[in-house]
């Protein structure tokens, strides 16, 4: 049996619900049918993906690895179908269409809200992808109008010829997330060396993330244990004290997690808005900048960082 997207949806549903019964109800199939399907998937891979007991289903080590690769594919297919339906509807209605792509960002919600208020007659579609390169290729192919992406420092993106770009922030520091009771959480700024004995969580499907982190470790003479997984898995491990992980500085405070800046900001990304040639991005960029400023000013630690670095994004317009 060859794995298809529908099989990956099954695995994600089981992991999300923690139960074959609840997953079957979400997918609209019977539990025996779902159990048989899971067994066929596991047989095709040659190993168990979930441990089943009276309390539910938990991913095995291999299961977590498969899920970390499956989620972006499932999300990407969902976004693809949503985008095409939105485009088809816009064509039928004859109204303007704005097709936005984005890597994961805390500012997406505020950006979309602002655009819908400014452009009430425009149909706005959104595609979120872990891969900046995939989004840039889609803009280059004419299937997206703009893409808001991040470029990991030391790992430049390959931007298709002819596309235009505007820099939102040239160097956004990456903060570090850790358990509330982590010894380093007691300090306002954390030294990279203080985390040398920790397990670090990184998503290898994000363009440049693993290479950028490896470069920083090498420059500091460190070789910590690295775990590979998606952001959802990273958050659950961080809360339990099983790992630390880089995070966006716009990440809001949480009761179960501490987020701190790293001394001298060794990890950083550049934020870009890339568009097709001749596209009118004035409103799109302006509302993105405003949404980013709002998100940054809600997080005291990052707002202070912007003030120290005299960033215009720290100022209230």
Mean pLDDT: 89
Q: Rg to the nearest angstrom? A: 21 Å
Query: How much β-strand is present in the residues?
Result: 15-25%
Low-confidence segments, given as residue ranges, are none
* Tally of contiguous helical segments: 10
Question: What is the N-to-C succession of helices and strands?
Answer: HHHEEHEHEHEEEEHEHEEEHH
Describe the global form: globular
Q: Number of DSSP strands?
A: 12
Quote the distance from N terminus to C terminus.
Answer: 58 Å
| Percent helix range | 40-55%
Structural class: alpha/beta
Largest sheet: 5 strands, mixed
Read across the widest sheet, the strand sequence of neighbours is 4-3-5-12-6
Note down, in words, how this protein is organized:
This protein has 317 residues and is an alpha/beta fold. It has ten helices and twelve strands. The protein has helices at residues 5-17, 20-27, 31-45, 61-93, 108-118, 132-140, 209-220, 231-239, 282-298, 300-308, and strands at residues 50-53, 56-59, 97-102, 123-128, 146-152, 164-173, 175-179, 200-202, 226-228, 245-247, 257-260, 268-275. The protein has a five-stranded mixed sheet, with helices on both faces. The chain has a three-stranded antiparallel sheet with strand order 10-7-11, with helices on one face. It has a two-stranded antiparallel ribbon with strand order 1-2. α7 (209-220) links the parallel β8 and β9 (226-228). It is globular.
